[in-house]
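Revision sheet: structure tokens.
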Amino acid sequence: MPRSWRYLHGSMLYTDLFVIMLNFAAIDFETANNERSSVCSVGIVVVRGGVVTKTFYSLIQPEPNYYNYWCTRIHGITQEMTNDAPVFPVVWRQIEPIIQQLPLVAHNKAFDENVLKAVFRCYQMDYPDYTFLCTCQASRKAFPFAPDHKLDTVAEICGYHLNRHHHALADAEACAAIAIQIL
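Predicted:
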């Protein structure tokens, strides 16, 4: 083991120069309209020991249950696709045991964290105060001369080709690939 490796603490390996995230869950939401509570899909990628161990994807019936043109244009999800989808609390009961208190990582923490808090409030669920980290913020430090810090751009810099941008699972996979390299 290189001399620079110091010690392991929880989900992170601390070294003289940087911190390597070993265990985390990358998360991405798509929304149906401009309301943050209108989650219509979620993607989760669980990383343990620096390796992807589980993925999860689900469509969700949004609240409020309507779609605006611009959101559908971005992600391609329509009301017809989510009419029979489960509501958020049902989906989150499947997600909770998967993420098991792992830090959550998103490539625009402000959006995904606010969406999660909004949908928890909407359904009057107790929010467990998840730790959120941001690969977009980290990419600004890791790649200061990148043309931009959008998910697909940063993923390419990290050697990951994002094929289905704005699909919640594909975006969570790209976020995990970035986090493995720069967080």
